[in-house]
Design goal:
Layout lengths: L5 H7 L10 H9 L4 E4 L8 H7 L5 E5 L3 H13 L4 E3 L6 H13 L4 E4 L7 H7 L4 E6 L19 H7 L4 E6 L4 H10 L7 E3 L7 E7 L4 H9 L11 E4 L3 H13 L4 E4 L5 H12 L5 E4 L14 E4 L6 H8 L9 E7 L4 H10 L4 H14 L6 E4 L1 H8 L3 H13 L3 E15 L3 H5 L4 H13 L2 E2 L2 E3 L2 H11 L5 H13 L3 E14 L6 H30 L5 H8 L13 H6 L26 H19 L5 H9 L6 H4 L15 H12 L2
Parallel strand pairs: 1-6, 1-7, 2-4, 2-5, 3-4, 5-6, 8-13, 9-11, 9-12, 10-11, 12-13
Antiparallel strand pairs: 14-18, 15-17, 15-18, 16-17
Helix pairs in contact: 2-3, 13-21, 14-21, 18-19, 25-27
């Protein structure tokens, strides 16, 4: 019997008659054994590019995905089509995780989805080495590149993971990669240019509109949207805003006008967010007012409007978000209510990620100290290190990756610093299952893991010392192996927490001052690039040439102007015929309202609460950077013990430009 072809699988398993866009080119390259990159527009069917090959490859396909919501949506799709797929994620209990691992080991699973952080877990890495893997899939692969719009430092380690687990090939998937990002991704995984498949970003059914934001932006939105929200024929709509409080305020205003709108943001608990998403997907709730927490993995075909009430974070974010409209091919509208007023908030988010010079110096001091130890090992609890250096977790991760790239440190392994257990039978009965030295070892465990009520904490130092006294091997590895075996037998439940990364200090004699300056300059350069990204987005919206064409050019789309345009004349002129500019309405964004000058009285009123508490707790006043963060509502780790959010003055200047607030604070402090 001849083997089943990919075309047959497409029809019989997934129910599609034909491949779309570049899907067939990607699938054929993957099945030919080539590492491949698929750069497809949002909604163009990237997921099928790994789902179909996974059924033809001999071993497991491992998918790294950045968001739980993405995994859940794709797993639901695969389940409907009878594909054996599962995920391992933080929401699962131990029994579920263990079951998934057993299915993977037995060869039953074809697809396993995980977050990139899962690959640092020592127990998970041990499991992966017991499984043959045919293909590593990296979803949202632009996260690999420092030049991308959503850089995630842990993604930089994926090429090393591919080598560690002997995975023969990779497939990179993304919807938002510029030519620079594509080249960066290809270089990291040695993907030949012929194996980078890009579909055009042009979609003829999307109308791109930019309207200058009016003084009463809320009423402007109501006037535009209300005619499309007649009872019984509401147009499914997503409205994107920057801040959680804006989502709540706008949703309330729409509801007051009879438009059934709901707010969606990270401040809601997960069950409420899930319910709102379910109602929107099912057509019960036609309008969502959301921060960018909403949308990843949303595959609803009939979204008629995507509105940017506030400016998006970048051209890449804009492209991704409007790509959720009109996936059914029907006409859909993407409206941006553009003004410069919201630009300051977006810029402030960028400035908020830049660490203090002193924080980087403190980080390097700790590394230098660890480098003087005989084993040159440095144990890192990220949240603790973040608190000690006053560097937020994401910038801190980025700094650690930069230090790896400088050859200062090298990751060796990660482990859970704390384990606790709960017995399901009398602990003494455990000993009876074993004989000789093993029985003595189990007795040592039982005697030296005291139970408080129902749970006991594993103290590895105590066990090791007790083992030395009794001449029994009670090393950490042996203890964990035994406890995991007991859990597999159903004798106890084992839980781990406090992930600890262990680094080797490869160059312990670096000059702290020189490296601090270099890393700080890198951070300032990243800040500059992100601010320029925002300016590029404004330039797009103020374009005097076709918006669709400008968007395509940003992503290096060479198909624009060739096909499939509305009319031959439009194609010849490089015009889409269905954007604001093509309609004859280019936009000049209104200036942000002028700011009133800041005074010494403002500083006394708003900064004093922070200064007093900081001085009381740390013995010295805060620097200008900390004061500016506080007044602009930007978090930093030092604010947690200070309970800064509860102080009068926090976020009072949220709408002001951060650099100006910082310079003003520095002048006031130095008076």
């Amino acid at each position: 019997m001849p083997p089943i072809s990919p075309q047959q699988t497409l029809k019989e398993v997934f129910g599609f008659d034909d491949f779309r866009g570049g899907q067939q080119a990607v699938v054929s390259r993957v099945l030919a054994g080539h590492s491949t990159a698929a750069i497809f527009a949002t909604g163009a069917g990237k997921s099928l590019c790994y789902q179909l090959p996974a059924l033809h490859l001999p071993h497991l396909t491992l998918v790294v995905s950045p968001l739980l919501a993405l995994m859940q949506d794709q797993l639901a799709f695969l389940a409907r089509h009878g594909v054996a797929a599962a995920s391992i994620d933080s929401t699962q209990d131990r029994d579920t995780t263990r079951n998934v691992m057993e299915r993977a080991k037995s060869g039953e699973l074809k697809i396993l989805m995980v977050s990139v952080e899962r690959l640092k877990n020592e127990r998970f890495r041990h499991f992966l080495r017991q499984v043959q893997i045919s293909l590593l899939v990296v979803d949202e692969a632009h996260c690999l590149s420092e030049w991308g719009h959503n850089f995630r430092p842990d993604y930089l380690k994926l090429p090393n993971y591919q080598r560690d687990f002997a995975i023969p090939q990779v497939l990179l998937l993304t919807a938002t990669a510029t030519p620079t990002v594509i080249a960066d991704m290809g270089e990291k995984f040695a993907i030949a240019a012929d194996n980078v498949i890009t579909t055009g970003f042009y979609r003829s059914n999307l109308e791109l509109l930019v309207a200058p934001a009016m003084a009463d932006r809320q009423q402007q939105l109501i006037n535009w949207l209300k005619p499309q929200m007649q009872p019984g024929s509401e147009a499914p709509t997503i409205i994107y805003v920057t801040l959680q409080q804006t989502a709540e305020r706008v949703a309330k205003a729409l509801a007051a006008q009879g438009i059934a709108a709901q707010a969606y943001h990270a401040g809601l608990d997960s069950s409420r967010r899930d319910e709102i998403q379910r109602q929107f997907m099912g057509g019960e709730s036609p309008c969502i007012v959301a921060t960018i927490a909403f949308g990843m993995g949303i595959d609803k075909g009939d979204i008629r409007n995507v509105v940017h009430y506030d400016l998006p974070k970048s051209i890449e974010n804009y492209s991704q978000e409007i790509g959720r409209a009109g996936r059914d091919g029907q006409p859909s509208t993407c409206l941006t209510m553009a003004g410069r007023d919201g630009l300051r908030v977006l810029e402030n988010f960028v400035y908020g990620d830049t660490p203090e010079y002193a924080g980087i110096y403190r980080l390097l001091e700790e590394i230098a100290a660890a480098g003087q130890a005989p084993d040159r090992q440095w144990e890192v609890l990220l949240n603790t290190l973040s608190r000690d250096t006053n560097i937020r977790p994401l910038p801190l991760k980025t700094l650690l990756v930069r230090l790896e790239m400088h050859g200062i440190i090298a990751p060796r392994f990660a482990f859970l610093a704390e384990y606790r257990l709960r017995y399901h039978l009398d602990p003494s009965a455990l000993v009876n299952y074993f004989e000789g030295e093993r029985a003595a070892f189990v007795r040592l465990l039982v005697d030296n893991i005291p139970i408080a009520r129902t749970w006991g904490t594993v103290d590895f130092d105590r066990l090791h010392q007790a083992g030395q006294t009794q001449q029994i091997d009670a090393s950490r590895d042996r203890v964990i192996t035994a406890l995991e075996y007991f859990q597999d037998k159903g004798w106890l439940t084992l839980e781990g927490k406090r992930m600890t990364d262990v680094y080797e200090i490869c160059q312990p004699n670096f000059t702290i001052e020189v490296l601090t300056s270099q890393l700080y300059d890198d951070c300032l350069n990243r800040e500059r690039i992100e601010i320029e990204r925002l300016q590029a987005m404004l330039a797009l919206f103020e374009s005097e040439s076709c918006l669709t064409r400008r968007l395509a050019e940003h992503f290096g789309d060479s198909t624009f102007g060739k096909s499939p345009f509305d009319t031959p004349s439009n194609a010849e002129q490089g015009r889409c015929g269905h954007c604001s500019v093509c309609y004859g309405h280019p936009v000049k964004l209104p200036d942000a309202p002028p700011e009133t000058p800041l005074t010494a009285a403002d500083f006394q009123r708003y900064a004093t609460p922070l200064i007093e508490r900081h001085t009381e707790q740390f013995g010295q006043p805060p620097n200008a950077q900390r004061v500016a963060h506080f007044l602009c509502g930007l978090t930093m780790p030092v604010f947690t013990p200070l309970k800064a959010r509860s102080l009068n003055g926090f976020a009072v200047f949220e709408q002001r430009a951060y650099p100006q607030v910082r310079e003003w604070a520095a002048r006031q402090i130095n008076k």
